[in-house]
Structure formats: structure tokens, C-alpha cells
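Tutorial handout. Part one gives the primary structure; part two gives the three-dimensional structure as C-alpha cells.
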Amino acid sequence: MNLTDLTDVLRDHAGPPPDAAHGPRMSGIRAKVRASRRRGVIAAAVSLVAVLGVTFALTAPAQRESEPAVPTTFPAYHAGTRIVAQAADRAPAHEVSVQVVPTRRDLRVFTRCEAGGRELRVRVTVNGMYSHETTCGHQPADGVVSWTAESFPVGSPVTFGMSVGESDVTQPTAGPIPAGTAFALAIGEEVPVEDYRFPPRPESLSPVDPLLSAPAPRIDLRRADRDQPNGTWRTTVDLPDRPVRIQVASNTPGRIQVLANGVRVYDHVKWTYEATTGLSLPQDLWEKDSGAKAEVGAAVEITVIAERTSGDWAVVLR
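Part two.
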């Protein structure tokens, strides 16, 4: 066999097989391809069903509009306290409880209800014994009770309970809890102003001037300095020939103390960025309440101490 013959032989073997052999083999290959495609389609369909099933499972609870929501949990720092324990539930449940180990003597008990504007009756217990009653649900504010742990030494467990029901003054106990009611209980330990964690500051603050009394009868004592809102300032004023009260207005968290002749007669502490105002006791009660002596019409030294404020505030006599 010469080189030309060898080339012809190799070319003949490299070509396609006879139709008799080629047809069945290609049919088998096509069948395998079709089967593979069917398996791919089935797998894709199964995956799609699984995804749809997961999506439905995740979204279905949010569509149950008739189911009442549990009240928003209290933040870690709330109304001058650090929340150390809290619990929440909804109807048909009607009570919750928490256990705390106080590290300070002064605690605050917060109760909260969401009942569509209805007034509900709240009963609070301490270690299973009746403590006090209040109402909730008819206004957005929380129910707050200060509680001093004199009966229990610091470091011992204390259990607080809260039960909720319909309010009926003719009945000695609360009625059944209405459907759709959600409620919460929280225990907070008082925190010094210097250690309190304020909420995030908003982009804008409301003015305090609309909260102040009319300019004519009032005596302006001190206004916040934009560059130095905190500090201590003293001034001597002649009191008018009438009893006065101290008014403080502010639009940021912080503490503003007012002293008369060195004795504190008003302590204005706030924890939010809402513009709020507050009043001291009338002048004729200062001595009885704090020992401060300030006669009507007399000259008195007023001291203003501002701590951790960051906006506008004003102190006036009215």
C-alpha cells in the first residue's frame, strides 16, 4: 500500500457511517436530549413552585389585617429610664408579667394599650399582690407609675404583672378584654441625665416662643445662647408685687434647673425633641416645698443651670 492508498483508507474511515448505522445512533442521541430537556423543565417548574410557596409563606401573615398587632416595643431608653424588662401580647390573652432584679431603688412601671380609642382598665401587681390600677387605650400616652423598691432589697427578684380588661366603674374588677386589643408592660430604671441616651435628632426643631406666656406680664430671665446653650448663669431681679411662677420652654432633650437665692425651685427635665413647656409651683409655695425664701416684691438672685441641651430654650417669670 502506497501513501495515496493509505490516505484514501483514512478518509473513508473518517466519514459518516452508513445510513443503517447512523440513523439509530442519532435517534438515540435525540431521545437523550429530549429527556434531558424534560428533566430541566420539570426541575425549573419545581423550583418555581418552591419559590412561590416561600413567597406566599412570607407574605401571607402580613395580609391578615384582622389580626391585631402587638404594640411597638419600648426603646432601650424611655422617658428618663433604661428599660430593663418588657413584655407584650394581644387578645385573647389579657395579662403579661416580667421579672426584674432591681439595681436601683427607683423604678418606673409603663403600661401601654392599643384598643382603637377605647378606655381599658389596667391592674398592676407586684410579686402577685395588688399594687395599683390605671387606664389605657383612650389616649396615646403611656401609663406611668413611679415605684420605689423599699419593700424589696436591691438585688432581689421582683415580678410585675399587668392584666387588661374592659373598664366599668360599676364593677369591682375589669371585664373581658375586647377583641383586637394589644397591650404591653415595661419596667424602667431611672437614669441620670448625664448617662441617658437621647433619641436621634430630627432635621428641624419647633420654636419655643409660641409656648411662652404673653410678653407684657412676663419677665425674661435667660434665653439659650446658640453657641453655648449649656452653662450656669446668675442674675438679680426684683420680683413683681404678685406671686409668680417660673416657666421653662425647650425644644431638645436636657435639663434646666432654676434656683432662687441658691435653692432649687424648678427642675425641668425632658427626653425628646418636641417643643414643650413646664411651670414651677406658685411662688408662695416655694418655701414650703423647697425652703426657698422669696417674698413678693423682693429682690432675688436667680440661677439658671442648663445641662445637655442642644437647641433653643427660655426661662421666664410669669
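Part three, for discussion. The chain is about 20% helix and 35% strand. Residues 19-59 form the longest helix (41 residues).
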